[in-house]
Design brief:
Layout: E1 7-15, E2 21-30, H1 34-69, E3 78-82, E4 84-88, E5 91-97, E6 99-100, E7 103-107, E8 112-117, E9 124-125, E10 130-134, H2 137-173, H3 187-221, E11 224-226, E12 231-236, E13 243-244, E14 249-255, E15 260-266, H4 268-271, E16 279-284, E17 292-298, E18 312-318, E19 330-336, E20 340-347, H5 348-352, E21 365-370, E22 373-378, E23 380-385, E24 388-392, E25 401-406
Antiparallel strand pairs: 1-2, 3-25, 4-20, 5-19, 6-15, 7-14, 8-10, 8-13, 9-12, 10-11, 12-14, 15-18, 16-17, 16-19, 17-18, 20-24, 21-22, 23-24
Length: 422
């Protein structure tokens, strides 16, 4: 075995030209111990690592310089959506207070002061039940007064009849009779004619007093205000001690059935496709997730506009078989109007978008992009189905790009036409 620093003759093993193995002696080579070989290997690895790191730094620099030399591409200013063609199932929605389907009003039969109110809202009553009563004393006194006046008139009538009879007897005693003509009458004949006229006046007074008495008695009977039908007291518009006049509505009664109604406002774009008998539904906050079936019961021929709402008031009827709904609840009514087919559609956001620098034209329009700038395209708005709305314009076609939003900056602005698609 060789020691450190010793020399050993090395041999090279190879093949001869005939394929035989041969041993070729080399010059003497000094043998290096393993520990010394490992110490010599570490500097070599370090040099390789430094070379690789330098190459990486040079590569990063080259890539960075290349990126800096390239032009900067700005981000898109607008969010674009294509115009599509297809079908729409418009749904008209609106809020309304539920009300009884059938109602009847109970009115005061005469003037007076309310003495007692016997029912409250929500009470069930039967036809003929007393709901309230008026003070009876003034009405009773009116009956007595009318009765006395009738008695006076009847006495006057009797007196007129007696005087007429006496006048006729006197005329008969003189052998005279009432002539057919009223010209050239004698004093006796004039006396008889006057007696007849007074008797007719007395009889007319009696008739008038009889009517007055009958009216007073009717008003006395009206002191008890009674239900005109069987149902539920929906509204009470009177309280004890208040003065009422004849014909004033004091109570509103709802029908015994549970049916309710709701009036939903429908816009110009959809009213032409709403028909009596179409399916509808209502939802209320008190029953989340519950949909109550309804039906279109009435469609007006004219629009009604006031300070609170505009549009066509369409009446829905809700059968309410379960009886869970109550009159007075705030409900959302939905009507599925007739569908439209094969029409151009854009997102509702396209109608809402308007650049900040745009003019204050409130007519419906969408915006496209040409040469990087927004271009206004006026449209005619039709039916709406969820987030899609029907539009019509000569400049629009299927696949045409329209702007639905801006990505910030000076173009970020919204228009007032978002809610005018109906």
């Amino acid at each position: 075995m060789a020691t450190a620093g010793s020399h050993h003759t090395a041999h090279h093993v190879g093949r001869s030209s005939r394929g035989h193995l041969t041993v070729v002696p080399h010059a003497h080579v000094a043998l290096v111990p393993p520990a010394v070989a490992r110490r010599r290997r570490w500097p070599q690895i370090g040099r390789v690592t430094l070379i690789l790191a330098a190459l990486g730094i040079i590569g990063v620099g080259i890539v960075g310089a290349e990126l800096l030399r390239r032009p900067v591409v700005p981000a898109a200013r607008f969010v674009i959506a294509p115009v599509t063609r297809g079908d729409l199932q418009p749904m008209v929605r609106g809020q309304a207070r539920l009300a009884p389907w059938r109602t009847s009003r109970v009115r005061a039969g005469t003037d007076g002061w309310v003495r007692e109110v016997r029912v409250r809202e929500g009470d069930r009553v039967r036809a003929g039940a007393v709901l309230a009563s008026l003070q009876r004393r003034p009405l009773a006194l009116a009956v007595r007064r009318a009765d006395a006046q009738l008695a006076v008139a009847e006495a006057a009538a009797v007196e007129s009849e007696v005087r007429t009879s006496r006048a006729l007897e006197e005329l008969d005693d003189r052998g005279q009779s009432l002539p057919a003509e009223t010209e050239n009458l004698s004093d006796s004949e004039i006396h008889v004619a006057v007696a007849y006229a007074r008797k007719a006046g007395a009889d007319a007074e009696v008739a008038a007093r009889q009517v007055t008495l009958a009216l007073a008695r009717s008003q006395l009977r009206s002191a008890n205000i009674k239900a005109t039908a069987t149902g539920i007291v929906w509204q009470v518009a009177v309280e004890e001690g208040s003065a009422v006049t004849g014909g004033q509505a004091l109570f509103t009664l709802a029908g015994e059935d549970a049916a309710l109604r709701a009036v939903v406002r429908v816009g110009d774009a959809e009213i032409g496709r709403v028909r009596i008998g179409q399916s509808a539904s209502v939802t209320v906050a008190g029953f989340p997730g519950r949909v109550f079936p309804a039906q279109v019961a009435a469609v007006p021929l004219a629009s009604r506009m006031d300070a609170r709402a505009a549009g066509f008031p369409v009446t829905l009827i809700i059968v309410n078989k379960s009886g869970q709904l109550r009159a007075g609840m705030l409900a959302t009514g939905t009507i599925a109007v007739a569908p439209v087919t094969h029409v151009l559609r854009v997102p509702v956001a396209a109608l809402a978008f308007r650049p900040a620098a745009a003019s204050s034209d409130d007519r419906p329009a969408v915006w496209s992009v040409r040469g990087g700038e927004p271009v206004r395209i006026p449209v005619t708005v039709g039916a709406r189905d969820g987030d899609l709305v029907q539009v019509d314009a000569a400049a629009l076609f299927e696949g045409a790009p329209v702007v639905v939003a801006a990505r910030g900056g000076p173009d970020a602005a919204g228009g007032p036409s978002a809610g005018r698609q109906r």
